[in-house]
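Residues and backbone
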Amino acid sequence: MADPKGFITTPREVPTRRPVDVRIQDWREVYEPQSFEHLQKQAGRCMDCGIPFCHLGCPLGNLIPEWNDLIWRGDTQEAINLLHATNNFPEFTGRLCPAPCETACVLAINRDAVTIKQVELRTIEEAFASGDVKPLIPDRLTGKTVAVIGSGPAGLAAAQQLTRAGHTVAVYERAVKIGGLLRYGIPEFKMEKHILDRRLEQMEKEGTRFRPGVDVGGELTGSALRKKYDAIVLAVGATKWRDLNIPGRDLVGIYQAMEYLPWGNAQALGEVETPMINVVGKHVVILGGGDTGADCLGTVIRQGAATITQLEILPRPNDERPASAPWPMYPMIYRVSSAHEEKDNRIFSVSTQEFLGDADGNLRAIKIVETEFVNGKFEAIADTEREIPADFVFLAMGFTGAEQSPLLDQLQVKIDDRGNIVRDDNFAANDDGVFVAGDAGRGQSLIVWAIAEGRSAASAVDRYLTGDTQLPFPIEPTTRQLMV
């Protein structure tokens, strides 16, 4: 156990966010630096429970009480060893994961949870700063080759594990740079891209080969992949976005979130001076109240929109954990992201009825109506219609499965009713030698699930190629059914 009285004597504290009026002037991450001594006190709040439910809350099975104790004692090197034993990329999850481990923390039954996510983040940052993150080059090569299609967190986790097992791994990405949604979907103020680049540098030194800018399924066909590689891992994500086919959808000014966010990142990195989708001085409406909507919100704020409104069809969540999601479940509660702290103009329980345009075919407003949930569906409330001025609307309403690309047809993989690629308990698709990891098989989910699935798929691929494996398999079939 860390500090035997820490959970009683030390209150929960998270790092301070930079002042709003300062941080909206730039694109850097929003948090102030935190002293290591302050972090140690927070790690000392961990009770080293007899049954650590944080393990169940974390799909990766992170050894949370163990590295909390090590950080409290100042043993950062052994702490990062334990953290890397279960998580390839704690610098990503420490910034981007919603921390289901914290809602499952035993201390959270009647007190504030341990700041697990922050201890994780600072552990890896201390390791990078001290040079303790080194390439792990395999002792020997197996002679087997693997193609990983997609360079998001699932694909990168699978690739790193398989490279370390001695296989020759190539990661294919259709975008011009490696990283998937980590690079193009996550705003700079949530994770600066040099954080991604330094991990990719480690992977390259280990032997992973990156192939950006390749249209797999087009210029590189599925049959060509089959001839060149012994196994294929599909980690293409769930990028088929949910649309809103209502009157006026064809007006100029309506974009999907993932059509907009990459331009914000390009602007933040100085890759373009004026992005093609630029909302400076414009009226903006964001449809969707989740993380993607918040990412759009923070980006819109930094671009200098005149007005911003965010709409959500669901009612406003409770401030406290609802009875329907008792501990240790992850509750749907009212949360304020860093972007909402900067500008919170959310409207709940409303539905968009129509996009309204001007004579030139440009968006000028949207028509909304208040709703209530009746008999399993949302019903409009009479006489509550109104208009909201809008030059731009960004649709951040989630994703409905894997994009139906030519590659999936070429590999003859099956798609289920939810739009996901069908796979068995060993992450294998119906076509021999093809495996599926991350959102492509699971559906839209958390980054921590993507990494866990990538690690598990790598274990299955290694066993397929060699007949055995020493790679961990963090997601067992029964566990996958129990966890959310």
Summary: Residues 477-484 have pLDDT under 50 and may be disordered. Residues 362 and 421 are 38 Å apart (CA to CA).
